[in-house]
């Protein structure tokens, strides 16, 4: 039974469906005749039916309907001259192979990102596009900013999503805050600290690198020493949650040290935001950037940033021009500011709908509950992997719950790619490979956002355990699953005791 018929069966008649959705009965009749409900109604259907007809069902059905085929003009009726008429003249530019609509497989995404996207977010993306200066859209922008302030735990007025992935958010911070000749202390303990160095250099600054081993948190003493040696350094940049290794650094301590030496800070929170505490105001962070596709479980392509007033004042006081027009904060203030909107660029309206919905979902769950959920599922996964005999790269207490770097057993390292390929082909399960010096030495297993749930933990343990057992490792999948269940049970019991104690 298609979604249109399900609606009629649920509400009793086409007339009642029309009344529920405030539509003309003829529209509902057309849904029934065509055999599907248009995608733009997906979220409304889910809400009206209290989830009995999920938005994803509506979307799947709508996107798989027979596409409309336009009838071509006969050659003799071409709108163009004879040199351009006829299919033969145009076919030399056509793809070499027949191309039809793209339908990706349904994967379980447990890599370093992106994470799986909730049906509500996918449905939001299918809503009608409107102008980026439309008053209704502007109102939504203000809601989006307030939701991001909640997520970042800040009151910074300049908190908004940059149009582009996390790398654009990073570049936005550096091009605005680094002037030619500036000294910048860059803390590097993985891939993304290295990208910060590149950004400093491209902005004409001098990067003073504080180096730590991959898998180790940034050493605060090394930062202190670097600032003492370079008292003229005006910026400190670091990665809070290093995606390449799964290690978390002490952001508050690093920021305190920077401020003691009169330096502003740039913090990468791409992997940490919504997965573990990011407390911008409490830590007094100056500039923080993140990404939409990790623990926020939104579509890739947006980079939430939050900028302190001190940074805004500095950028406004710069005498030189920001060398990127698109990312010039002074220009973006005119679009994302609190007063009148000035056109800057065509905003990705539907992606912003999606981020808005993702943040609504996060607010409904509660930010602290989101942090707790990521930790809870991490502990269960950890218990199961350790029961298999696997070890973690990062020491206890320094690891991220949402990004688990697992050491590949020596006897399996040569077959790293084979393991990941088998998981993908046989279980539709994606995990990440190691990068740089850790390539072939670790697997990166992400538990982010919508992907962070018990069923994915158990699937990962079962699938990975089966593959490793087939390769001759002495792995007992049942023991791993039992360990994970035991971890969940212990956590539930602890939570129940805490609730009971609080009630008393």
What is the structure about, briefly put?
The protein is an alpha/beta fold.
What structural keywords apply?
single chain, 504 residues, alpha/beta, 434 Repressor (Amino-terminal Domain), Aspartate Aminotransferase, domain 1, 4-stranded antiparallel β-sheet, 20 helices, 46% helix, globular
CATH homologous superfamily caption of the largest domain: Type I PLP-dependent aspartate aminotransferase-like (Major domain)
CATH names the topology of the largest domain as Aspartate Aminotransferase, domain 2
Mean pLDDT: 92
Strand line-up across the major sheet:
2-10-9-8-5-3-4
Largest sheet: 7 strands, mixed
- Beta content comes to 5-15%
What does the overall shape look like?
A: globular
Cα distance spanning the termini: 51 Å
What's the number of helices? 20
Provide the gyration radius in Å.
26 Å
Total of domains = 3
Second rung of CATH, namely the architecture of the largest domain:
3-Layer(aba) Sandwich
Structure, described:
By secondary structure, the chain is an alpha/beta fold. It folds into three domains: 3-63, lambda repressor-like DNA-binding domains (434 Repressor (Amino-terminal Domain), Orthogonal Bundle); 119-364, Aspartate Aminotransferase, domain 2 (3-Layer(aba) Sandwich); 367-503, Aspartate Aminotransferase, domain 1 (Alpha-Beta Complex). It is 46% helix and 12% strand. It has 20 helices and 15 strands. The chain has helices spanning 3-11, 14-21, 25-34, 42-48, 55-63, 87-91, 119-125, 135-152, 166-177, 191-202, 220-229, 251-260, 280-283, 309-317, 329-336, 349-365, 367-387, 416-427, 454-470, 477-503, and strands spanning 108-109, 158-163, 183-188, 206-211, 235-239, 241-242, 247-248, 264-268, 287-289, 302-307, 391-392, 403-407, 429-430, 432-433, 442-446. The strands form four sheets. It has a seven-stranded mixed sheet, sandwiched between helices. Strands 11-12-15-14 form a four-stranded antiparallel sheet, with helices on one face. A two-stranded parallel ribbon has the order 1-13. The two termini are 51 Å apart.
